[in-house]
């Protein structure tokens, strides 16, 4: 398969195939997806005036070492308490949870190009007006973040239906690693926004990410299409290869009714849902709270905060890419079945971070150990791309968007719950002892999720994925190039 792909002639890009262009745009899209999300987590450190300090705004900026320039950055700060801050961080998930399942199903019907593209474009525009919403009042910025979550919630499940039409089964783990570029986006956004905030004020973090988002959206609609058959500039060689490797369904297939009863009674589906919920609960807790923990417990300044907060995300993407290439290689060579590969990498990616959170509960008060453990835990968690993350494409590619939408719906509740949990535990005493409770909760959640998938996960194509007439072809997912219609 790999050799065949290398034989593609140059197409309209001059050197890249359409599949490669799709990979690049999806990678950049998920980088942007998290840039639009996590800009607030670093900006909020400077948005809030700490009333417990009796210093002036200038003294506060001095104490946080945000002005290496000779002149102070005069910027608006808001009198929001810890509960309001966590409320603002968590409200994103109120909207996010509403569009996960509809977004996946809508992409199966009308295509991921429109769902992913328009959602990101509108979210970018909202990001540009975020400073204005904050100045208008706390209620306005909360409402904006809810709508932002509503838009971005549809993006993640939308990509799986596109993968089922563009990416051969034995290359899908590598393609799914593009989704972990969200971590790479966070890794880059944190230090860049930290630098921008230090020199130009917190508003610059929103302007920067919003402008980048609009530019990406324009490029997305110019070069990405829902299937090889719809792409106007794809070469005949690449189109024929993909049509052979992935027999494209008829236009009505995307409108097949969802087999809800079979899906909801399927242990492999619930293994994906529960494991994803557990993994993302831990991930979102770190994404939303790590800058605050670094500032309030470890006492790093805002510039170091942005850099240190980015390390776990950079490690996660690199691990996602490496593990996905390894998993596809093991499956292609026959050394591991799809089921064995998914279980092995999921157990590693979700179970081991749980153990590390126990270690964090004991050593997290130390600056070096704390950053090292956070970085290692999230780095290892990147291997979910070789595990459960793309498992919906294995068991039911026709409904992969719906399955991932169901899984992300649960994880969205977990994202809100994590901010609520930390807010309640630290609102009175923001101490390391209170954070130890957070770490123990994360440890139990991670381990529970890993055990669920190891026990109930599967890599086999499920009977309810296809119409009755297509049942004889169910076993051919592992040999896409040899598929022939009966």
UniProtKB/TrEMBL annotation:
Any idea where this protein resides?
Membrane
- Entry's Gene Ontology molecular function annotations: symporter activity
GO terms for biological process, alphabetical: monoatomic anion transport
Biased amino acid composition, Basic and acidic residues: 475-486
The residue ranges of the Major facilitator superfamily (MFS) profile domain are 21-461
Question: TM spans, by residue?
Answer: 12-32, 115-134, 140-160, 181-200, 206-225, 342-363, 369-389, 396-417, 437-456
Membrane disposition = Multi-pass membrane protein
Q: Tell me the keywords, alphabetical order.
A: Membrane, Symport, Transmembrane, Transmembrane helix, Transport
The cellular component terms of Gene Ontology attached to this UniProt record, alphabetical and capped at eight, are: membrane
The keyword Metal-binding belongs to this UniProt entry's keyword annotation: no
Region ranges (Disordered) = 466-486
Gene3D superfamilies named among the record's database cross-references: MFS general substrate transporter like domains
Q: Which domain of life is it from?
A: Eukaryota
PANTHER family linked to this entry:
GH05102P, SOLUTE CARRIER FAMILY 17
Q: What is this protein's record name? A: Major facilitator superfamily (MFS) profile domain-containing protein
